[in-house]
Every structure is written in C-alpha cells, then in structure tokens.
Amino acid sequence: MMLNGAEDEEKWLAEGIAGIQHNAFYMHRALDSNNLREALKYSAQMLSELRTSKLSPHKYYELYMRAFDELRMLEMFFKDESKHGVSVVDLYELVQHAGNILPRLYLLCTVGSVYIKSKEAPVKELLKDLVEMCRGVQHPIRGLFLRSYLAQISRDKLTNIGSDHEGDVDTVMDAVEFVLQNFSEMNKLWVRMQNQEPGRAREKRKKERSELQDLVGKNLHVLGQIERVDLDMYKETVLPRVLEQVVNCKDDLGQYYLMDCIIQVFPDEYHLQTLEALLGACPQLQPTVDIKTVLSRLMDRLSKYAASSTDVLHEFLQVEAFTKLSNTIEKVIEVQVDMPAVGAITLYVSLLTFTLRVHPDRLDYADQVLGACVKKLSNMPKLEDSLATKQVVALLRAPLEKYNDIVTALTLSNYPRVMDHLDNGTNKVMAMVIIESIMKNNTCISTADKVEVLFELIKGLIKDLDGAVDELDEEDFKDEQNSVAKLIHMLYNDEPEEMGKIICIVWKHTMAGGPKRLPFTVPSLVFSALRLVRRLQGQEGDIVGEVVPATPKKIFQLLSQIIEALSAVPSPELALRLYLHCAEAAHDCDLEHVAYEFFTQTFVLYEEEIANSKAQLTAIHLIIGALQRMTVFGVENRDTLTHKATGYSARLLKKPDQCRAVYTCSHLFWVDDEDGIRDGERVLLCLKRALRIANAAQQMANVARGSSGPITLFVEILNKYLYFFEKGNQQITAAAIQDLIELINTEMQGDSANPGSDPDVFLASTLRYIQFQKQKGGIMGGKFESIEL
Hey, which of 6, 45, 357, 705 would disulfide with 23, CB 3.0 to 4.6 Å? Predict the structure, then answer.
C-alpha cells in the first residue's frame, strides 16, 4: 500500500509538471509577442496546477518551484509597460478577473510586487490588500505556499523600504505590520495541519509540518533584514507580536521552531536588551517543548557576543543577564514537572558555560549554578540515565577547561557535592579527568586544606566507595593508581610545616584505600616526604607549637610507619627498597641511629619475608650497594651490617649467586673516597671466598652435567682482582692475578668442546685490557709488567 501510494504521488506530480510546462510554453510565446491577454490566460491555467490536494508537502514543493520559476519571467514582463501597454494600476485590477482564486492571488501578488516598486500607490494600502486577500485560501499547504510566495517576492522591496520611500518611520512600520500579519496567518495554517487527521496519521503529519517550517520562519528572516527595524521597534512591536503568536499557538513543534528562529535571526544585542521578555515566554511554552535546546542556543549566542568585544560586558551586568537566565531556568524546571533529569542538568551546563565565558571572575556565580544543580539532583532518585550522567560530567569539566587550574575549582564549595551524585564508575572517570587536568597544566596544590578537598573529590580512586562492586580490569586499576601516584608529586609547599600537614593528609587518605592500593601510592608518598627531609637537613629539635612533623627525625618516624603498612599487602621487595632510600636520606642528614634502624628493618624483611631466590639475589645486591655508600656509621655498626650482608650473601641458594654476592661484598671494605674505608685484607678474604665458591660450583656442575661448568665466574673474579689491583690494594698482587689467569686457562682447556663461547670472549677481552695497561707504560704499566699472558 505504501508503495502504491508513492507511485500514485509520483504520477500526480508528473501530471502537474507536464501541465505547468504545457501552459508555460504558450505563456512564453505570448510574452515574446507582447500579448498580455494570452499571457494572463495561460499563466492562470499554469497556476491552476497548484490547486491539487493529492501531493505531500515535499512533492508539492517541487511542483511549486516549477511554477515559481515561470512567474519570475511573468514579473519581468509586468515591469516593462512598454511591452504590454497597460499601467500597473490597471494591471492590478485586470489580474483580479482570473476565474479561480488560487491563480488569481498568485497573479495579484506578482503584480503587487511591481506595484510596490513603482511607488504609484501607498505602500500601506497595497500591503494590507495583498495580505488580506490571501486569506481566501485556507487549505493549509496551498495557503502556506501562497503566502510564502508573497513573502518571497516582496522581500527585496521590504528590506530596503526605509531608504526607498518617503515617510521612513511610517513606511517601515507598514512593512513590519505586513510581515507580522503574513507570519501570523502562516503560523495558523501551519499549526492547523497537525489537527487535520487523528490517530496514526498525526506522526506523518508532524513530519510533513517539519518539512514546511522554513516557509513560516522565512517571515522572521525578512523582519531581521529590514534595515530600519531598530532596537526600540523590535522591543515595542516585533518581539511582543511574535512571542504572542508563539505562546498562543499551543503547539510544541511550532513553539520550539519559532523560538529557535527568533534566537537565530535577530541580532545578539537585541536579545540582550529584550532578555526579560524573551525569557518570560519560556515558562509559558508547552511542557513537551525541548526548552533546554532553545535556552542553550540563546546562552551560546550571548556568550559569543560577550566574547566578541570587552566593551559589551558591562551591558550584561546592566541587564543582570545571569540573574534573569538563572531565574528562568528555575521556573522552567519548576513548571515542567515531567522534565527528565538530563534536560534539567543540560540547562545547568549551558548556564555554567555562559557564566564562565561572560563572568569568568565571578566564581560565586559558578558556585551558585552548581548549587542549583545539587538541589535538583537531591530531589531525584539515583542517576541511572547515562545521558544525564554525561551532562553531570560536562558540568564538572567546564570549570577545569575554563580555568585550566583545579585550584580554582577547589574553591567552589558545591563542586564536591555535585560529584557525590555520580555513580561509582563515573566518579572514577571524573577523578581521572581532574588528575589529568592537574598533570596537563602542571598545577601545584600547595595548601593542606585544598589537598583535603582534592582527595575528597578523587576518593573514588583512593578507596572503595560504599556499595561499590570492584569489577575493574587489572590494567585499568593500575592506570588509576599510577595516576594517583603521579598526583602526589604535584602536592608541594615551600613551608616545611605546611608540607608536613600535606603529607599527613595524604597518608590518612592513602591508608583508607586498603592494602591493594598501597604498592602504588606509598612510594610516591615516601619520596615526597624524603624531599622534605632533605630540605630540613640539620634540624634536630622540634618546632614549638607544631603538631605536624617538621623535623627529619619525626618525618623518619612517620616514614617507618608508612613503609611498615606495606607488610599488609604483602610487598616485601618494595618495602626493602624504600627502607634503603630512607637509610640513604638519614645518612645525608647525619643521623646514624636512624640509618642503622632502617638497615635493621631491611634485614628483618630479608630474613622473614623474601623467600624467592631471585628476589633474594636482587635484594642482597641492593643492600650491598646502599651500604657501600654509607659513611655515617661508626666501626661497630658498620662491622655488624657488613657481617650480616656477607653472611646472607654466602647463604644464597645457588652457588653462582653466592659467588657473585660474596665478591660484590668486597666493595664494602674498599670505598674509593677521600675518607672511605680501605681494608685490603678483608677485600682479599671476600675474593678468596668467592673463588672457593666458584670452584665448588665448578665441581658440582662437572658431577651433575659432565661439563666444566660456570667458568665465567672465574673471569668475573679476575676482573675484581684487576679492579682492586689498580686501586692500590697491597693485598692484591700481580702473582695472585697470574695464578688466577693460569687457573682459568687450565679450566678453559678442559672445556675445549665449546670454542668461541661467552667465557672465551669475556676472557679474551679481559686479557686485551691487561695487555693495554702493560703497553701504556708509566706507573700503572709497571704494575702490570710482571703479569705474563
């Protein structure tokens, strides 16, 4: 049935076009021969094709445009009196004798446009006559197109009417009255279409009306282009009449489209000066009108107008634009009780965007908007609409994007209250947006109060919110926590007391997040505290009146508690590294007992928590490396710690690991600094012990696999011998090096099945180095001279 209807419509359209073309042919022939009577006859017959009621608005428009193109030719003929020999006055009377009303009115409008231009009659009377006569066609589609034709052909005469006619003001008023009357009649015809057919046909009719809306709006475009329509005339005549039509039509499609037309057509300065009247109509619109879009577009235009020049900003203050817009939005939300949450929040987003653009210095306005949104959200059930949630996020993002500074947003008291209405997932997303803004703009949060507010805002990332079900992907969770860790580095104050407060606040919130988050956030907090410690080096006593730690000793006490919390994870490898960093900081502050305590904690962790052999190997090398750099310890404490380190090295599970750890311990007894320890005997003991372990590893490998085993260990030990030999250790002699080289060569011969292996390459490189030192000459060359290769 739908297909047959479409085919029928195409057939009727084709017949109508054929009729127009047929009569247009004879009309053109009459025009060429200057035969007025024949021209009027065939033009009337041509226009009779527009009397059809069978076509949809879209198809009727195609038919109308064919006739319109032909009428332009006819209008040009009417203008040239020398061709037809009839005055425009007589011509105006003559066309009224056409047999049918629709062709008659099209011809009358065509001649009327020529009549206006000729100035041979009062414009007011002509315009009134034309607009009144068009009432003779009350069929909605035919009437709309007829009046659209009237508006179109008179448009160029009306827009310059103030300068082309005598009596400017009265003439302009006549033109305005004409357009307003035509607009009023077209609006009535347009609205009437909706009520023609009941039931299911109403949706189809609504679609057809949408296709015709530009015909009605064309009148407002004409009004906007009349040069002499100034602000006073717009305020006193044009806007009240148009708004009267908008409100009284009681049609949601009509009201929405016409309000949008008003906003788009007339100048921004007019909107600003008539804001009260324009906004006053909004609460009177039908509840189904998409008022949020209308107001959003109005605020967007006004925002751009404010941005165009700083000279107009005072006008916004004079007319109290923010207050009027805010009050109107409140009234609209109050009147439209069924407005969905997304609609109300969208209005607040637009109002906040307007406020930030027009009054960026008025943070109280921005906070007022957020407060109004909080009030609305408080009266709603929990947000479950994804579109509404997106608008809340847009509301929260607006201040961040405007100021590029979270510190400014933190001064808005209602900002956190808006975030409280987000679901857990979106709360996290918004928290990430806040952190990204801080990182992007390199914003430093410098006071404890603002840090407290900030961590309340991002609490969705630092702890599990009430009722939260953690279904987060592991990678997403890591990304979130790494972002929080980065954020901690952006919290800084030059004043030690304030920085101490910041650290305590961050620690409080971090502990609330549970053990799974600690491995991500604790390191950043520790390094932030260590940065403060290094600024406080040399302060031993307490600062009077300060509750917050502000001396190195107190901060180290707090650091010990912070790192100890990692035992709940557990994460012993991380805790061990952090203890070593704290020990180094204590060393820099010349706090021997504090540094010793951190090393004690490190060894306790090593003994009790670290069981994996690879982790043990890494840990012992970290301990040796940190301890080697320590010069703060007395003889007794240093001996205790080095004894522990060498003991743990010798008890590693795998012999190669033991060997490497033990020969690394040799560096604990030879520190190449001005005041560093230089105990050659103990260095030699470590290296000899490493050789015994390497030999044992060699024998075990030979028994287990039938091969000579890890010869590389001997080459590594040889390199250690060479290092200490160069540094001047008297216990390391050329003879000892010579013996070791011979031992390695013997072992290499026993493993001749693998020529070109890694040990071969390593040994060859080492021997080349010795040869280089021998050839270099001087003192060092002399030392190496006795070594035979």
Answer: 45
Question: Which residue, 484, 402, 406, is CA-closest to 445?
Answer: 406
CA atoms of 116 and 610, how far apart (whole Å): 100
User: Does the pLDDT of residue 255 top 70, yes or no?
Assistant: yes
Nearest to 421 by CA among 396, 444, 398: 396
Task: Please list, residue by residue across 433-458, b when 16 or more beta carbons sit within 10 angstroms of its beta carbon and e when fewer do.
Answer: bbbebbeeeebebbbbebbbbbbebb
Q: How high is the pLDDT of residue 1?
A: 37
Q: How far apart are CA 43 and CA 103, in angstroms?
A: 8
Q: How far is CA 129 from CA 120, 125, 142, 171, 347, in A?
A: 15, 6, 19, 15, 45
Q: How far apart are CA 42 and CA 179, in angstroms?
A: 30
pLDDT digits (tens, 9 = 90+) for 228-237: 889 999 999 9
C-alpha 587/C-alpha 507 separation (Å) is: 24
| Number of neighbouring beta carbons within 10 Å of residue 581 | 17
- Dihedrals phi, psi of 678, to nearest 5 degrees: -140, 85
Q: Which of 90, 1, 82, 115 is nearest to 40 (CA)?
A: 90
pLDDT in tens, 709-732: 568 999 999 999 999 999 989 999
DSSP code per residue over 361-399: T-HHHHHHHHHHHHHHHHTSPPP--HHHHHHHHHHHHHH
| Tokens standing for residue 424 | 């857990």
Q: Rg of the Cα trace of the chain?
A: 45
Peptide bond into 570 cis (omega under 30): yes
Count other Cβ atoms within 10 Å, centred on residue 119. Answer: 11
Q: Are 652 and 664 in contact (CB under 8 A)?
A: no
pLDDT in tens, 635-668: 999 999 999 999 999 999 999 999 999 999 999 9
Q: Is-contact 169 117, C-beta < 8 A? A: no
Asked if residue 20 lies in contact with residue 49, where contact means CB atoms within 8 angstroms, the answer is yes
**8-state DSSP, 542:** P
What's the one-letter identity of residue 504?
A: C
What 3-state class would DSSP assign to 741? Answer: helix
Q: Which residue has the tokens 């319109």?
A: 68
pTM of the model: 0.77
670 three-class SS: strand
Per-residue pLDDT at 318: 92
Quote the pLDDT of residue 295: 94
Q: What is the mean pLDDT of residues 466-481?
A: 75
pLDDT, one tens digit per residue, over 51-94 is 998 888 989 999 999 999 999 999 899 888 777 778 888 888 88
Q: Average pLDDT of 161-174?
A: 61
Q: Which two tokens stand for residue 691?
A: 């050789």
Show the tokens assigned to 110.
């065509």
